[in-house]
Specification:
This protein is of the alpha+beta class. It is 31% helix and 32% strand. It has 2 domains: 66 residues; 137 residues, Aminopeptidase (3-Layer(aba) Sandwich), CATH 3.40.630.
Length: 251
């Protein structure tokens, strides 16, 4: 648990045990100083009764998600989603403190509850430096995974480059999980999201991934990814609980 918003991706399989876990998690989250708790339900990650149980304890459903998959292939060059990207949109891996600060600003603008501690920033940058020193060696070998962030930029009519969006990916062996896309409102028609999908798939393949998975909002990004060649494999739902942090959070 940490300050900000905590997340849960798995639930116990019997109702009594699951309810006890919900109550325990709420108290642990509050004691840790968090102001929100997000709980994921859906195919293969929770029993069906969780969608009834969570609202009974104050959770509200905030998002319906499609779990989508795209085969990147095993050839030297990747198979990429069919997403057009304008010439005035560029992307790059977040690999230094300045870019990480930009990513944090965009993320906080779209998801106000999202915060990164200084320890998390240092750990991220150390992980990227380690990854770059290893070349093509696959992140995630031996059970570990690697979280990476990316930025998208748009060149405006004055020929100035503006930050437009950020997104993340978790690399684990031959699978890349795409997540956390956030686009500034004024750039939402510039296809920066498409550019970040392409860049994450391209980089994932360069790191040894053959499969990309995405949790996509059914009303927004899912139709874009389906049209680009992603295939549905599961459904998920996201529930959120807002809470007041204690005056003196537990250390």
């Amino acid at each position: 648990m940490q300050r900000g918003t905590s997340r849960v991706w798995r639930s116990r399989t019997n109702r009594a045990g699951a309810e006890a876990l919900v109550l325990e998690t709420i108290e642990e989250t509050r004691a840790a100083g968090s102001t929100g708790l997000v709980w994921h339900t859906g195919d293969a990650i929770s029993p069906i009764f969780m969608d009834e149980l969570l609202p009974q304890h104050g959770f509200e459903k905030t998002e319906d998600l499609d779990v989508l998959a795209f085969e990147l292939g095993t050839d030297a060059g990747p198979i990429l989603p069919d997403l057009p990207v304008p010439n005035d949109v560029s992307t790059r891996l977040v690999a230094n403190r300045a870019d990480l600060s930009l990513a944090n600003v965009v993320e906080a603008n779209v998801f106000p509850a999202s915060t990164w501690s200084e320890a998390e920033r240092r750990a991220y940058l150390a992980g990227v430096a380690d990854l770059q020193s290893r070349g093509r060696e696959r992140p995630g070998e031996g059970g570990a995974s690697r979280v990476l962030r990316y930025l998208a930029f748009v060149r405006n009519p004055e020929d100035e480059v503006e930050i437009a969006a950020t997104a993340g990916a978790e690399m684990a062996g031959e699978t890349a999980r795409l997540w956390g896309a956030a686009t500034l409102p004024r750039h939402r028609r510039h296809r920066s999201y498409s550019a970040l999908v392409i860049e994450r798939c391209r980089h994932a393949h360069a790191l040894g991934a053959t499969l990309a998975l995405a949790n996509a909002n059914t009303a927004s990004s899912a139709p874009i990814l389906r049209a680009a060649g992603f295939r549905p494999v599961a459904r998920e739902r996201r529930y959120a609980l807002k809470m007041a942090a204690p005056t003196h959070p537990r250390v």
